[in-house]
Amino acid sequence: MNRDDNINEINITSNNQMGGITAHTVNYGPHARQMDDSIGAKFKIDIPVNAKITITAIWGNSEAFNFAHQIMQWLKSNGYKNVNGVDQAAYSAPVSGIHIQPNSENKFEIIVGSIQ
Questions:
Q1: Which end of the chain has the lower number of beta carbons within 10 A, N or C?
Q2: Is the separation of the CB atoms in 23 and 50 below 8 Å?
Q3: For the stretch 4-23, what's the b/e string if a residue is b when 16 or more beta carbons lie within 10 angstroms of its beta carbon?
């Protein structure tokens, strides 16, 4: 077999290992959040369908930005027609989780912070 025929071949060797992990892939830390029905139920309770909605993710956090994009898609597919795209912003204090902020009677901001 030619080496180029099996380009995805992976060889792992551990000699005289004294602890630790020998693996091809090691995943650690929290998993990326996914939009689900329980989060959507909270939005349906707190935000009227005809509200103007702005979604903001914390600046430079790709996980928060991707999650905010999922939220935007969910809102649009569940009858929320006045949803702006995802913005990014820097805050003077750490922001984690999801915050629903009413800005006026019919304007809301969803702020997506880092994973808690």
A1: N
A2: no
A3: eeeeeeeeeeeeeeeeeeee
Domain ranges of the chain: 35-116
Q: What is the pLDDT of residue 1?
A: 47
Predicted TM-score of the model (pTM)? 0.75
C-beta neighbour count of 106 within 10 angstroms: 13
Distance CA 61, CA 95 (A): 11
18, 30, 31, 90 from 27: Cα distances, Å: 21, 9, 9, 28
Length of the chain equals 116
Structure tokens at 41: 């139920």
Question: Above 60 in pLDDT, residue 3?
Answer: no
Report the C-alpha gap between 52 and 97 in whole angstroms. Answer: 21
